[in-house]
Amino acid sequence: MKRLFVHLPDFDNFWKKAKLDDQELLEFQTHLLENPKSGVVIKETNGIRKIRWKKKGSGKSSGIRVFYLDVEEFEILFLITLLEKNDKENLSKAQLKILGQLTLTLKEALKKGRRNS
């Protein structure tokens, strides 16, 4: 299985803010590469998944929550954003609605790109 990982700016910013390093990112991406459907689908988002991930030196329950979109048809996995458990457990309804719109936009852009190539 292969995937192109695309990091949205929010994801990179929050990853650094959570003091996570490149090795942890590689481990996380390897997990998603092997288990792209391991996160729970959030119904309001048109396919975005949420997965709990532990930070080094802590358990899953005190780790991070990562929101990602796996577009299997195109072998692309978008790392969208993350939350630290001690900051916030979930996104608001308004944020989920925005992510749902983002999902549709990303999928449409991929389909349009394929038609134009």
TrEMBL record:
It comes from the Bacteria. Pfam families: RelE (PF06296). InterPro entries: HigB-2. This is Addiction module toxin RelE. It comes from Leptospira noumeaensis.
